[in-house]
Every structure is written in C-alpha cells, then in structure tokens.
Specification:
Layout: H1 22-51, E1 57-60, E2 65-69, H2 70-73, E3 78-83, E4 89-93, E5 98-102, E6 108-112, E7 125-131, E8 134-139, E9 144-148, E10 154-159, E11 169-171, E12 176-180, E13 189-193, E14 199-202, H3 215-223, H4 229-232, E15 235-239, E16 243-248, E17 253-258, E18 263-268, H5 274-287, E19 300-306, E20 309-314, E21 323-327, E22 333-338, E23 348-352, E24 357-362, E25 367-372
C-alpha cells in the first residue's frame, strides 16, 4: 500500500474516517501507536532534562586590576559603567556629573557633561542606558533622559512622567520605559511611552503600598528577623527589548514578564551571600539606636542581561567577598565568581561577552576595576 497517497485522513470531510476499509483501519491505528510511542519518548526525555540538576561552577577572579582611577583621568566617583557597541567604555562620574569615554587599554578619549540644569547637564546621574549606538543618561533629579552620540554630542532630551521621579527606571526601547511603582494602585510596575500619554500597570506587589515610612514598625520587623513591608516592593529593573525583568532587592526573587505585562516565571535566587547579609542587617538594626534611620536590606548591587544570560553583582557582607553570579535564561544559577577580598566594594558592573572582560565601579574608592571571568 502506498501510504503517502492515502490523503483521505487529512480531508476535512467528517465522514472520511468512517469510509476507511478494514485494511486502512489497521494502517491507521498502527501509525497512531507509533506516533504515540515516539511522542511519549520525547516527553520522557524532556522531563529527564528538566529534572536534571544544574552543576554550579565556582571560580575565583584572580586577574582583577585597576582600569582607571581619579589619579589617571580625574574620575572622582565612578558610579556606572557601560560597554558601548564600538568596544569603548563609558563611565559615569557621580561626583562631577560627567561621562568619560575610554578605550579598552584605559586611555581617555573624551569627557562630556557637567553639573547644572542646562542642556547636556546633570544634577544626579543615576544610570547610563544604551539603546542602539546612543548613550542615554538618566538624570533622576531632573527626571529626564539625555541622549548623546558616541562623540558626546547632545542629540535630544526626553522627559519622564512625574510618576517616575526618583523611581527605579529602565528602557525597553527608544520609546518605551518601565518604572517600579512599588504597589501604587495595587501594581508593581508601569510601562510608559515617551511619544504618547499611554501607560499600563502590571505585576502583583509583595505588600500593600504604605503611606510614608514607619521607621519604628519597620525596625521592629527587622529586629524580629522579618523583611519590613516597606522594602518588599523595591526592585531593580532590566530589559532585553522583548522582556522585562524585576529583581526584588530585599527578597532575592527574580521575575520575568512579557511586554504585555504577563508574568512568565518567578524564581527565588539563592545567592551565596544572602544568609550572611540578612544576619548582618538584623544585627545592625538591633544595634542601631538612631530613631530616624534603619539599615537597608539589599542583596545585590547590580543586575544585567547579556545575550542569553543574566549576571548579578551581589552585595558584600561584613568580612566577606562580593560575587558575580551567572544565571541562564530560566533564572537558574550556573556559575559563581568570587571577587578578591582586598577589592573595594563594587557598585556597578558590565561584561563584554566576546572576551569575558568585566568592569566594576567602586564609587567610594574612586576606582574602576577590570578583570577576566574564567571559564
């Protein structure tokens, strides 16, 4: 029998199945059995792959060195670092409100910007955001995005909505951005558009939005070993242009959303320093006698997406080291890189996937480090 010519089983005629001959029935059900067995085998293989535990690789970064400092290029307080598409390195100087562009060898190409309210000036550089071949600088005090080309020429400024003032913000593309609204209107996040007034809220907050910070209540919760509600909705945001990622700073939880605001997955991230950091913060709250202050619980310093992987720069516990933690696209830890103990605290990180070169800013020491992530 020429099975390829037996197209009757694909016809839309609802009675075609009833018109089969006994011989055709046998071939039909034999094919069903073969397909069913093959499908079950694929399912079993997928389940085995999904259940297979991931072996976390552990490395030490032993190549860390000073890339630039105040003494070399007058960069006083490096707060943010970004690798540009042309391979140059952009560094934000919080102390002087400038952006410096360096080559891979550490030589300075040029600097631009200064403190002020005028065009191309900044009051508070919070982030360098790169979309395409532009450098976008987020000034959180003026609540605007200032866009430059790689030569430092001012191209345009975009104003954020008033709702984003001093909020965690990241770009999705050159038109859309997302902010953390921390439970306002019962939502966690909000997508806004530079070119229209359209907005939409999404995401379920971990706690109800509190009106102001009740320091006494929050400190009591922290002393009791609980995460204060005030901290639960604080997130660090990032986007790869097709998805939105939110890391809960005080809960060590990572969520992934599509651009319609649908939650795709949520995963607790067991970072190597979490236990010690929480114990340090609880102890600090117990020792803190200042009624107007509270220790801030934050498990990470920075979070970025590079190709199919995510990287987290952990916070640093007392007497310990910081880590760079690599995650796959499902949010599973695949590698942990320990920083040298003598390195000063790292605030921001970027990584070149072509050669695994990582750059770290140390705001307090006035240093930008450079090192290779081993494989």
């Amino acid at each position: 029998m020429n099975w390829k010519n037996k197209a009757f089983i694909l016809k839309p005629d609802p009675l075609s199945f009833m018109k089969m001959t006994p011989s055709e029935y046998r071939y039909f059900f034999l094919a069903l059995i073969i397909i069913s067995v093959a499908f079950q085998g694929c399912n079993n293989q997928n389940e085995k792959s999904a259940d297979k535990p991931i072996t976390i690789q552990n490395f030490e970064i032993d190549t860390l060195k000073v890339f630039t400092s105040f003494e070399t290029h007058d960069i006083a307080q490096p707060s943010d670092v970004k690798i540009l598409k042309n391979g140059h390195i952009a560094i934000a100087d919080y102390g002087q409100q400038t952006i410096s562009i360096l080559k891979k060898d550490g030589s300075l190409i040029h600097s631009f910007g200064r403190q002020g309210r005028g065009p191309g000036e900044f009051l508070n550089i919070r982030d360098i955001l790169t979309i395409g071949e532009h450098i976008s600088v987020y000034d959180s005090h003026q609540n605007r995005l200032v866009v430059f080309n790689y030569s430092g020429e001012l191209l345009r400024s975009e104003s954020f909505s008033s709702a984003s003032m001093n909020k965690e913000t990241t770009l999705i593309n050159d038109s859309l951005y997302v902010i953390g609204i921390e439970g306002v209107s019962g939502s966690l996040l909000q997508v806004q558009n530079f070119k229209s007034d359209s907005v939409f809220n999404f995401g379920t907050p971990k706690a109800e939005k509190e009106q102001g910070l009740d320091l006494k209540k929050s400190k009591r919760q922290l002393k009791a070993g609980k995460v204060p509600n005030f901290f639960k909705n604080k997130v660090i945001l990032n986007s790869d242009g097709t998805h939105i990622y939110a890391f809960f700073e005080a809960l060590s939880e990572l969520q992934k959303y599509d651009l319609h605001g649908n939650l795709l997955w949520s995963r607790m991230i067991d970072l190597p320093n979490n236990k010690q950091i929480f114990e340090d913060i609880v102890e600090s709250a117990k020792e803190n006698t200042n009624a107007r202050s509270i220790p801030v619980l934050n498990y990470i310093a920075d979070f970025l997406i590079i190709e199919d992987n995510m990287f987290i720069l952990t916070a640093r516990p007392s007497g310990g080291s910081q880590y760079i933690v690599k995650l796959n696209k499902q949010g599973e830890i695949v590698a942990e890189y320990s920083m040298p103990e003598n390195a000063t605290y790292g605030y921001d990180i970027d990584i070149n996937p072509e050669d695994n070169t990582a750059y770290f800013t140390s705001w307090s020491a006035g240093i930008v480090y450079k090192g290779i992530l081993p494989e």
